[in-house]
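Q: Entry one of two.
A:
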Amino acid sequence: MRGIDLRAARGELLAVLGTNGAGKTTTLEALQGRRRADAGNVRILGSDPARQRRALASRTGVVLQQSALPGELTPAEFLRLWQRMAAGKRTHRPVDEQLARVDLTHRRDVRIGQLSGGEQRRLDLAVALSADPELLFLDEPTAGLDPESRATTWRLIRGLLRTGTTVVLTTHYLEEADALADRLALMHDGRIVIAGTLDEVLTARDARIRCTVDSDASPPAGQLTGQLAVTRARDRQRVEVHTTKLADDLRTLLAWAQTNGIELHRLRASEPTLAEVFDDVRAATEEVTP
């Protein structure tokens, strides 16, 4: 890990993204105090997690990438056992309230080994939320879940954010980060390549306007403020504009077409997506990797 710099305020969700082996899980382990940083400072809620892990345990919750739930117990039994093990450290919500919170009331007395993968992940989340932590770490919390279970988890996370819980999330699902994150950090090879708010990260890539025009029409190269690329395609010209001023350039293109009586075919205008930014970062870092 090199030069990691992360921050998240109260009620924010920080999503840490990256390719396999980028260092996401290692970073979370350092933040949770399960791995000591070789250099620099790590502060969680104002404390060093490596030195004050026990004190921070009463204020944080963790959902690990791999679950280790006892298959022979029921969800209700396991939550009661968890509360007894953590007795005196913090006040826990009643078991039935915890189960209802993650939509597992109807499975309270079914053995954990008989629960679906999605239900087991929601039980992991119930344990992490048992005492209403100020800070919640989620390491790939929806990996392998079906769309319905993922949507249920997203609703729960959004509710936590509204009540002021801070969430640090690692995920391979870009649409998950796009839907939930206030801040993002894209990692590669142990480094943060780009970080910021969702809007700041997305502006790392230009928006695009695409269309085709009749082959005898002259593209409006001199009138557009963005970078223009034109290629021939049989009897049409393909126009692609890369721009940081999507609305302005789109208005210019439409005005040019109307003034010159040009019909624009297959017109598409799109803001940059997180998937495109991620692909650009991955491609750029692969180019410089020996």
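Q: Entry two of two.
A:
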Amino acid sequence: MPSDPVQALAQEPVDHRFKGLPPDAEHAGLTVGQLAAQQRNLYTGGFTTPVLTLDADALNHNLAALGTYAERHGLAFAPHGKTCMAPQLFHRQLAHGAWGITAAVPHQARVYRAFGIQRIFLANELVDAAALRWVAAELAADPGFRFVCYVDSVRGVELMDRALQGRPQRVEVVVELGAGEGARTGARSDDDCRAVADAVARVDTLRLVGVAGYEAEVPGAEPESVHAYLRRLTSLAVEFDKAGRFADAGEIVVSAGGSAWFDAVADVFAELPELSRPTLKLLRSGAYVSHDHGWYTRLTPFNRIPEEGGLRPAFRLWAQVVSRPSPTQAFVNAGKRDIAYDLGLPEVELVRNPLDGAGGAERPAPGVRVVKLSDQHTWLETDSADDLNVGDWVALGMSHPCTIFEKWPLIPVVEADGTVGDYVRTFF
């Protein structure tokens, strides 16, 4: 048994937990690693529909693209792991230069630690006493582990301090500046941030190391207002540094950056003057790893800065036509249980006729549209009775990586020729 927990994922048996995998692999008692070693073809190798896939080339491209972008702009990078919750992808992100992995809730941090992640940035105020005690125990047990989380209220600081009493390690925190009234979390005003920083200074269980925020929550976000918010954030960092609030910090952390405005983060963080200590300018974009066919295709900053690179949609969900009740209507065997739909309906990308040999030739389907989702069916509207036949495989492109990954615990990674050479395990 491998000592590396990521490598150990290959020893999991192929069984009923994993949708879309070949039934004969389970009957043969294969592990995930043994199935990967067989290099089966997605279309002829016994996979069942629906099946979600990741495009190997697009995945490689995206991992390199944002790692290169961050390095080019002098940014550290802690991609938000809640997007994929896939330890294999975390370690590939680290291999492409990521500083660590961002989490939103304690469960995610526990998954990260189970798979050896040594730096975790938790982008939320953490006031759960049991979770704080777990963090303190992890810090005590592993001197190489670093954990940073938000604080955004005096009450939160008090609750953290109470939970951490008697623990030898101080927990590093950053003050979260809210993006304005009607936005999500974060202290709403600079004075509120100062009050939170004062509260941290009064306790001996926490260490203030920086400031952070999330620019996509700026009401009516557009370039001018996003840049203005980020400049408030960096100004707060400068003010706190001059006031000696980071006196106990080894380095000063200034963090922002989702997947829609990382170009603005790069612009404003480049303006940050030299501070009294080394500065970790930390970007947290996460959706880039798979990108998508809708929401982030429209929002990615690479649309504004195409000369800096670009991302490719890596997801494709293959479903099969199981009913063709009229010339203008068809149904495939995937629905809300399988498909992300919170940011728009999926789009039909391709069709394959499995009777054409070698899994069928792919063809576009411009006359086929998704009009509705049921739990286990996608409703398709067609322009012609010849657009689709019962048995055809239909490829769907979807929006919002976070709600795509979460529906699939094991995802085949497919090469351009249809070969499945790897499988990505998720933990939601």
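A: Comment on entry two: The CA atoms of residues 238 and 274 lie 9 Å apart. The first strand starts at residue 51 and ends at 55.
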